Amino acid sequence: MRKISATILVYPYPWYSERLVHKDVYQFPDAIARALKSEMKVLKGWLITGQERDGQSPIILRAALLLNVMLVLLRLSILRFSSQSETPCFVFFHISWPTALLAGAVRLIWRGRARVVIKTDLNPNSELSTSGGGSILERFSVRALRPNTDFFAAETLGAVRTLRRLFDERQIILCRNGIDLSSVSHIDSRSRDIDVLVVSRFFVEKKGAALYKEVIPQLVKAGLTVHLIGEGAERFVISTALKGNAQVRVSEQLQHAEVLRAMMQARVFLSLSLSESFLIAIMEAYAMGCRVISTAVGIAPDLAKETSSITILPFNADDIVPQVLQATGQEQPIAPSRLGCWDDVVEDSGLIRQLTQ
To answer: Has residue 42 been placed in a domain?
Structure first.
């Protein structure tokens, strides 16, 4: 059995908040390190503060990324010759030219002794999934990663199918994202005083803004209580003439623990996004004992095959409203016994067994 000496996260991309990186990036390699009983190290890029990603100049982003890649290359060399990390496991995110370049450097510097894992949410509709598709840099990344990557950890079945068209099937493992339920001591499905919970960005079109404007007023008119959480919730209730309605609760920003508590108070979790890479909120709502009604995006279609508590509907208000009304009158489902924490999903994926062979 191979002994992994350290688990090392490599994240060269410019990032914008410690909270975001911790939630979306640190937890996967941290779970691997716990399973392997190895030391956890992080090689990451510089923090860009003051603005969100959408507010940054593309030139600044490209320059920051290039600088970060050069910095990480230097740190990889220092790490190799100044530590005892003889057989480390390197964890990368995204199929991209920085990942391809750095994964190749890991293979060269460690002379093939290191393990390389790439976590990816590659969309089935990606241009890379078509023959000859994608930009020149994307096609270079695929060719360079084939010999330099041990395993691709795909987040959804759709990503698995896409990766199988690009890489050796033996390199591909289904490893969903985990959820953090550390703030929840127990799940109580008996006292639920909210009929419908929505967590979204209410003025972002790809998050289903138009559908929410059509569906939510109809649900309120039918007598349901609705809790809206997320960016733009206040403007949403004003724009839909729901401001001041006693059946509508509004929370612009809540801590993660507060969102989980809101899920425990809701009968139905409603998600109407048009496009998502994973949609972690659906897993959290399911774990909190909600019935989930969602459009066919992210992880939702995969989970719907495993439980009757999750219903997939088309992007059509005429189908969504009756289904929500019906769901609020049904008994609450029993929360799943395995709630999908990071340690569980890494163990269930078989990744640790493969890494140590």
So the answer is: yes
- Tell me how many domains the chain contains: 2
266 and 125 fall within a common domain: no
Query: Using CA atoms, how far apart are residues 349 and 105, in angstroms rounded to an integer?
Result: 27
Residue 131: both structure tokens together: 């023959």
Rounded Cα–Cα distance for residues 212 and 196 (Å): 12
Residue 251 lies in a domain: yes
Beta-carbon neighbour count of residue 305 at 10 Å?
9
* Beta strands in the chain, from DSSP E residues, in sequence order: 6-11, 39-44, 89-93, 115-120, 151-154, 172-174, 194-199, 226-229, 248-251, 266-271, 291-294, 310-312
Query: Tell me, what's the pLDDT at 20?
Result: 46
My answer on whether 28 and 174 are in the same domain is yes
pTM of the model: 0.83
Is residue 334 one of the residues assigned to a domain?
Answer: no
Query: Residue 98 gets which letter from DSSP?
Result: H
| 142 and 233 co-located in one domain | no
CATH classification of the domain holding 109: 3.40.50
- φ/ψ of residue 88, rounded to 5: -80, 165
Please tell me the predicted confidence (pLDDT) of residue 242.
92
> Could you read off the pLDDT of 62-81 as tens digits, one per residue?
888 898 899 999 999 999 88
Q: What is the pLDDT of residues 249-295, one digit of tens each?
A: 999 888 888 999 899 999 999 999 998 878 889 989 998 889 999 99
Structural domain that includes position 350: 6-178+342-355
Give pairs for 58-62: CB < 8 Å, separation 24+: 61/14
